[in-house]
C-alpha cells in the first residue's frame, strides 16, 4: 500500500543547483523514448499496476466506514464477516500487486541498464586511441557506471515515483472530496505550513550530500592510489604506513562526521513530515469530530477521512519537487548520450574490404601526420578543455618495406618513430598521403582484417588480470592447449610457465605484475605468435630488460620474425646491425636509410648515434617516450 511519509524522500535526492537553468531537449526525450521503446508494454503494465494498487488502497477506509456506520449499528454479523474477508482479500491482492510492480520495475530498470552499458562499452572501446589519451579514465568509468544507473533510476525510480505519487494523490483526493469536501480542503490548506521549512531542510541536505560525495571521492582516490601494486610498493619502500594510516584516518573521520550531519538532517525531515501528517490528521479529527457531533457527517465518514488524510501529505510533498527530481535524474541520460555521441574518426569506410591472404608489404606514400589527430572530444571528461596546437609529427615520409624484410627505425627521442608505426594498424590516420598494406590503402580495409594481419609487442606489454592461458588466447579464442604450448615454446617461455604452481592457469596479477619484465615480453611474443600476423611491429620491445632476459627475448624474436615483415623501433645493437634496412628519422622526417655499413660510411646522424652507443654502451636511441598518444 503506497501511503505515508516515505513518498517525500524524493526531494532529498534532487539537486537544484545541478539542474538550474537546464532543460531537456526534445531530441533527448526522443532518444530516451527510443531506449524505452522495447519496454513499452512493461511500462504500460507498470503504470497499470500502480493505478490498480492505488485504487485498491482506497478500499480499507471505505470498509471501515461501512463497518462503523452500518454493520455495528445494525448488529449485522454477516456483513462484518464479509467486510473482514474483503479486507483480507484486499491485503493479499495488494501484496501480489506489489510483487508485480517490483517485477516490472526490475525488468525495465535492469533491461535499460543492460542496453545502455552494452551500447556505451561497444562505442567507447571502438573510439580512436587519441580519445583515451585525453580523458580521465576514472571519470569515464564513473560515467559508464554511475550515470547509467542514474538513467535507470530516472526511468523506473524517479519517474515511477512521480507517477505513483500522482496516481495516489489523485485517487485519494477524489475519494476524500466525494466523502467530505470541507475536511479535504482543510487538509490541503495545512500543507504550506510544513512545505517551507521542509524545502529549507531539503536544500541543506543537498549541500551536505554534495560535500559528502566529494569527501568520499577523495577517500576513494587515496585508497585507489595506495592499494594498487605500485602504490603499495612505494608505501612499503618508504616505510610510511603510520603516516598513511593517519592521513586516511583524517579523511575517513571527515566522511564519518558529515555522515552524522546527513543522518540528523534526514531524520529531521522525516520527523517533520510525520508531524505534519499527525497534525493534519488531528485537525481533521478535531473539526470532523465537531461535524459528527452536529450530525453533519457520520462517524464512519470521519474515520475514513482520518485514514485518507495520512495518504496525501507524502505524495503532495514529493510532487512539489517533481520537476527538480525529474530534471536531476534525466540529466544522467544526457551525460550518457554525450559519451554515445562522441565522434569516431576511425571507422570502416563505406565499401571497405577484407584483407585476404596478407603478404606483408608496407608502404608509406608521402605520409604527413599532425596532431590533433581527430575531432574526438569530450570536454567534461578531460583535464584540459583547450585544443592542443596543431603540430606536425611526421612530414612527407616515403618508405617501401618488402614482404619478409626487417626494417629498423632509429632516431632521437621524440623523432616520430612510434607515431610512424602506429599509422600501420590505423591507431591514427595519416593527415595526408597514404599508408598501404599489400597495395591497399589501410583506410579502405576493414579494421578487423587489417589488425588481424598485424602483431605488436610494446615496450611495456599489457597483460590482463587473468590466467596466462586466457592472456594468450586473447589473440585467438579457439587456440588449443597444444597450440598454446607451441607458441610459448617458440617464445622461450614455456619452461617458466610449466614451473609455476598452476601452469597456464596461473593468474598473472594486475598488469602481469607476478611476472618479470622479460617474462611478460615473452608471453606477449607468444600471444603474437598465436595471432600469426604477416607484419610484426616491435616498439622498444627490449629496452628495459637485463642482459639475460634480453638474450631470451632476442631468441624468441628471432623465431617470431622468421618469414614476417618486421618494423622495429630499434634499441639494441644486434637488432640494428642485422636489419635488412635501417631508417633514420629526425624531427618527423626520414633523413637517411641504408644498411648498417652504408650508413656508417656516409656519416651523419646515424653515425653519431652509433658512436654514442659504442662509447657509452647505450642503445642507439634513448627509450622512446613517444608511446602512441596525443601530442607525442
Note down, in words, how this protein is organized.
- The protein is of the alpha/beta class and 632 residues long.
- The protein has three domains: 336 residues, ABC transporter type 1, transmembrane domain (ABC transporter transmembrane region fold, Up-down Bundle), CATH 1.20.1560; 133 residues, P-loop containing nucleotide triphosphate hydrolases (Rossmann fold), CATH 3.40.50.300; 72 residues, 3-Layer(aba) Sandwich (Rossmann fold).
- It has a six-stranded mixed β-sheet with strand order 6-7-8-3-9-10. A four-stranded antiparallel β-sheet has the order 2-1-4-5, with no helix packed on it.
- The two termini are 62 Å apart.
Keywords:
four-stranded antiparallel β-sheet, disordered C terminus, Rossmann fold, alpha/beta, 3 domains, single chain, ABC transporter transmembrane region fold, 632 residues
Which helices and strands occur, and which strands form pairs?
Layout: H1 10-13, H2 16-19, H3 26-36, H4 40-57, H5 59-72, H6 77-124, H7 129-134, H8 137-179, H9 181-189, H10 191-227, H11 229-238, H12 241-293, H13 299-320, H14 322-340, E1 362-371, E2 391-401, E3 406-410, H15 417-422, E4 432-437, E5 440-441, H16 447-452, E6 454-457, H17 468-473, H18 481-490, H19 494-499, H20 517-531, E7 535-539, H21 547-561, E8 565-569, H22 573-578, E9 581-586, E10 589-594, H23 596-602, H24 605-616
Parallel strand pairs: 3-8, 3-9, 6-7, 7-8
Antiparallel strand pairs: 1-2, 1-4, 4-5, 9-10
Helix pairs in contact: 4-6, 4-8, 5-6, 5-13, 6-8, 8-9, 8-13, 8-14, 9-13, 10-11, 10-12, 12-13, 18-20, 20-21
Amino acid at each position: 500500500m503506497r501511503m505515508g511519509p516515505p513518498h517525500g524522500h524524493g526531494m532529498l535526492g534532487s539537486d537544484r543547483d545541478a539542474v538550474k537553468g537546464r532543460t531537456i531537449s526534445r531530441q533527448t526525450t526522443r532518444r530516451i523514448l527510443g531506449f524505452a521503446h522495447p519496454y513499452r508494454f512493461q511500462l504500460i503494465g507498470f503504470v497499470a499496476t500502480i493505478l490498480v494498487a492505488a485504487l485498491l488502497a482506497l478500499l480499507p477506509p471505505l470498509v471501515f466506514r461501512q463497518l462503523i456506520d452500518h454493520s455495528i449499528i445494525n448488529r449485522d454479523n454477516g456483513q462484518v464477516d464479509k467486510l473482514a474477508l474483503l479486507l483480507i482479500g484486499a491485503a493479499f491482492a495488494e501484496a501480489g500487486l506489489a510483487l508485480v510492480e517490483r517485477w516490472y520495475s526490475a525488468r525495465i530498470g535492469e533491461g535499460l541498464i543492460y542496453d545502455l552499458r552494452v551500447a556505451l562499452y561497444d562505442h567507447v572501446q571502438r573510439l580512436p586511441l587519441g580519445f583515451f589519451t585525453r580523458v580521465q579514465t576514472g571519470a569515464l568509468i564513473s560515467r559508464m557506471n554511475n550515470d547509467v544507473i542514474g538513467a535507470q533510476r530516472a526511468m523506473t525510480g524517479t519517474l515511477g515515483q512521480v507517477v505513483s505519487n500522482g496516481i495516489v494523490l489523485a485517487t485519494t483526493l477524489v475519494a476524500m472530496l466525494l466523502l467530505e469536501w470541507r475536511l479535504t480542503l482543510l487538509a490541503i490548506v495545512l500543507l504550506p505550513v510544513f512545505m517551507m521549512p521542509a524545502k529549507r531542510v531539503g536544500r541543506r541536505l543537498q549541500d551536505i550530500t554534495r560535500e559528502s560525495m566529494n569527501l568520499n571521492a577523495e577517500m576513494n582516490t587515496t585508497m585507489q592510489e595506495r592499494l594498487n601494486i605500485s602504490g603499495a610498493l612505494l608505501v612499503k619502500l618508504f616505510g610510511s604506513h603510520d603516516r598513511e594510516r593517519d592521513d586516511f584516518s583524517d579523511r575517513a573521520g571527515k566522511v564519518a562526521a558529515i555522515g552524522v550531519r546527513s543522518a540528523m538532517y534526514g531524520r529531521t525531515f522525516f520527523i517533520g513530515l510525520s508531524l505534519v501528517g499527525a497534525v493534519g490528521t488531528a485537525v481533521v479529527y478535531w473539526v470532523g469530530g465537531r461535524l459528527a457531533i452536529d450530525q453533519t457527517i457520520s462517524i464512519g465518514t470521519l474515520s475514513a477521512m482520518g485514514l485518507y488524510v495520512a495518504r496525501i501529505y507524502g505524495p503532495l510533498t514529493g510532487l512539489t519537487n517533481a520537476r527538480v527530481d525529474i530534471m536531476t535524474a534525466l540529466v544522467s541520460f544526457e551525460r550518457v548520450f554525450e559519451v554515445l555521441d562522441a565522434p569516431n574518426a576511425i571507422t570502416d569506410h563505406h565499401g571497405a574490404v577484407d584483407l585476404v591472404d596478407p603478404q606483408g608489404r608496407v608502404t608509406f606514400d608521402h605520409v604527413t601526420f599532425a596532431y590533433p589527430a581527430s575531432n574526438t572530444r569530450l570536454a567534461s571528461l578531460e583535464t584540459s578543455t583547450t585544443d592542443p596546437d596543431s603540430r606536425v609529427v611526421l612530414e612527407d615520409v616515403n618508405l617501401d618495406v618488402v614482404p619478409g624484410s626487417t626494417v629498423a627505425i632509429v632516431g632521437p627521442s621524440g623523432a616520430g618513430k612510434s607515431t610512424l608505426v602506429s599509422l600501420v594498424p590505423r591507431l591514427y590516420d595519416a593527415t595526408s598521403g597514404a599508408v598501404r598494406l599489400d597495395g591497399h590503402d589501410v583506410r579502405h580495409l576493414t579494421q578487423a582484417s587489417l589488425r588481424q594481419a598485424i602483431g605488436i609487442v610494446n615496450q611495456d606489454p599489457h597483460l590482463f588480470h587473468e590466467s596466462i592461458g586466457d592472456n594468450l588466447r586473447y589473440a585467438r579464442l579457439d587456440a588449443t592447449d597444444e597450440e598454446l604450448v607451441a607458441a610459448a615454446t617458440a617464445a622461450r617461455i614455456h619452461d617458466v610457465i610449466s614451473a609455476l604452481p598452476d601452469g597456464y592457469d596461473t593468474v598473472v596479477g594486475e598488469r602481469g605484475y607476478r611476472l618479470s619484465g622479460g617474462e611478460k615480453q615473452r608471453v606477449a611474443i607468444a600471444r603474437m605468435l598465436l595471432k600469426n600476423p604477416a607484419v610484426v611491429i616491435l616498439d622498444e620491445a627490449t629496452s628495459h630488460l637485463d642482459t639475460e632476459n634480453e638474450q631470451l627475448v632476442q631468441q624468441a624474436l628471432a623465431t617470431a620474425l622468421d618469414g614476417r615483415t618486421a618494423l622495429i623501433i630499434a634499441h639494441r645493437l644486434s637488432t640494428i646491425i642485422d636489419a635488412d634496412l635501417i631508417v633514420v628519422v629526425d624531427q618527423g622526417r626520414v633523413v637517411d636509410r641504408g644498411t648498417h655499413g652504408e650508413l656508417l660510411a656516409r656519416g651523419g646522424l646515424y653515425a653519431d648515434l652509433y658512436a654514442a652507443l659504442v662509447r657509452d654502451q647505450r642503445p642507439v636511441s634513448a627509450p622512446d617516450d613517444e608511446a602512441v598518444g596525443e601530442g607525442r
